[in-house]
Design goal:
This protein is α/β, with parallel strands linked by helices and about 350 residues long. The chain has 15 helices and 10 strands. The strands form 3 sheets. Strands 5-6-7-8 form a 4-stranded parallel sheet. Strands 9-1-10 form a 3-stranded parallel sheet, with helices on one face. Helix 3 links the parallel strand 2 and strand 3. The radius of gyration is 19 Å and the shape is globular. The two termini are about 30 Å apart. Bound molecules: ligand V47 and iron/sulfur cluster. The site of ligand V47 has 23 residues, from strand 6, strand 7 and helix 14.
């Protein structure tokens, strides 16, 4: 099938009836994965909420180390959290945190080596492109060296956070001072070159225009043409509570907008294996609908979600493996357990 252009994507996104758009995206999903829906037994570990940046959509970070809600887990706590997940069959640890002002790069390397030693089989999906760039800047080392050292320590995959909207004028308004869109893309390019796969996200439903959403997708499609290093694209639904952007955009976007975004992502990102319906942010009911509108992955059991719940998410903070599989079956679809590298276990 011919690839859809930026103009066609915008037209479909804005004008196609939801039913038709969803059905077309579902056909694409079915052609790739049939009735399979991928899920992972995982745990999120947000090792600190202390961060030197002030993204205005973020309700998770605490700037001051002495704030009563600030925390900074030591390696032992991280290992304990991981052990609990591994005892429940986790195949992936999703490890990200704020940009801590004091930790040396060796702190992060040691965290991964200790986890790798204690849990040789679990996948370590750790550190966003923004964290990697911060480690490089702070240590004065080349990004390629940082990636190489983390890989030797046990890094298996990179999560897709920090992309927000890659268009700089939007970044200047919502996350001024954060790595630029180009830096985010370059970091993923470098990770792919090092033989590590990654995910990509898009934070939507705030000040961005439909044109800027499609431009974001286009930048991802172009990089994927070059590297083929992305596994999944994850549209992230902006949550407005306890953050300053939420005073300007006080409502979560509509279900229709979420489903249209999932569908257009499936159609436009023809070189991405998966579109993820991140149930934590969409809510379970909308995520189930997304499985019929182009999404082929639900992320996972999570256990302890902090970032979206700080911003008012009303979904549970985690789900059992039994529940996630039941939900998929109830949609007439087939649950397929995977790890962070999309190795299959069922
Ligand atoms: O980078 C922050 C976003 C991201 C809010 O790679 C918010 O498999 C909504 O990237 N409302 C972290 N979103 C989550 C993330 C992710 C999640 C699941 C799977 C994967 C993956 C990646 O959450 C941040 C930021 O873009 N975020 N604040 C908010 N108020
Ligand atoms: Fe820090 Fe990430 Fe929150 Fe931005 S989104 S303030 S980088 S924790």
């Amino acid at each position: 099938m011919e690839r859809i252009s930026v103009e066609e994507a915008l037209d479909l996104f804005l004008n196609a009836p939801l039913k038709e758009l969803g059905e077309r995206a579902n056909l694409e999903k079915q052609a790739r994965h049939g009735n399979s829906v991928f899920w992972v037994n995982n745990r999120q570990i947000n090792y600190t909420n202390i961060c030197v940046l002030h993204c205005n959509f973020c309700a998770f970070s605490k700037i001051k180390k002495d704030s009563p809600h600030a925390y900074d887990w030591n390696h032992e706590t991280v290992i304990e959290k991981a052990a609990e997940a591994v005892s429940k069959g986790a195949r992936e640890l999703h490890i990200v945190g704020g940009l801590h002002p004091n930790h040396p790069f060796s702190y992060y390397v040691e965290m991964l080596s200790k986890l790798r030693k204690a849990f040789p089989l679990v996948n370590l999906k750790a550190f966003t492109a923004v964290e990697l760039c911060y480690f490089a800047k702070k240590s004065g080392r080349a990004l390629d060296d940082i990636i190489h050292e983390l890989k030797v320590a046990g890094l298996d995959a990179l999560p897709g956070g920090g992309a927000e909207i890659l268009v700089q004028s939007v970044r200047d308004e919502i996350c001024s001072g954060k790595e630029t869109g180009e830096e985010w893309l370059n970091a993923h390019r470098a990770v792919h070159k090092a033989g590590i796969f990654s995910n990509a996200t898009m934070l939507f439903g705030h000040i961005e225009t439909p044109e800027q959403r499609i431009e974001h997708l286009n930048l991802l499609r172009q990089l994927q043409d070059e590297t083929h290093g992305f596994y999944a694209f994850i549209p992230l639904v902006f949550h407005p509570e306890h953050n300053s952007l939420g005073r300007r955009i006080p409502q979560i976007t509509s279900e229709e907008d979420i489903l249209r975004t999932v569908a257009i992502s499936r159609l436009f990102l023809d070189n991405f294996p998966h579109i993820k319906a991140y149930w934590i942010q969409m809510g379970i009911s909308t995520a189930m609908k997304a499985l019929h509108a182009g999404a082929s992955d639900l992320d996972g059991t999570i256990i302890e979600e902090k970032i979206t719940h700080a911003a008012g998410a009303s979904s549970p903070v985690g789900m059992t493996p039994e529940h996630i599989q039941e939900l998929i079956r109830a949609e007439g679809l087939i649950p397929v357990e995977r790890d962070a590298k999309y190795e299959i276990y069922s």
